Please model this.
Amino acid sequence: MIYAIYCTGSRAGGKAVRELSEDGCRELICDIQRNYHLPWKARTVGEMIAVARQESDARKLEGHDIMALERFNPEVTHMIMFDVLSMESPVGDKGERMRLFLTEAGYKKALENQDRSFIQILNHAKMSQGHLQYDRLDGER
Model:
């Protein structure tokens, strides 16, 4: 079981603990991501990206966030976005869409998992100092 702590209201002053199933917890997180609004105008790039994603109703990717620290690791040479096709996949759950920043060895493993029909790579970019260099032009992705 997963536990979530939530405030029952500032005037009530109390906190309550409610037991949630894994699905219930995911639903709560999705609801917060969908309905949370900043009390001020977005100021940072991360806040502006979050607002744009929320307004576009875009599907949130599992795995690494677009500005994840892994992106800036000098050993990271690839970024992939992929769909998980099999319950046997070593990464993610069947039906998820994911983004990962990978080293050369990690990318080779991803290609092997694609050959075994565990995942389907949808998008690939080479990485250089945190910069993405997509294989194809925007219209072809």
About this structure: The helical segments are 22-35, 45-56, 104-115. The two ends are 40 Å apart (CA to CA).
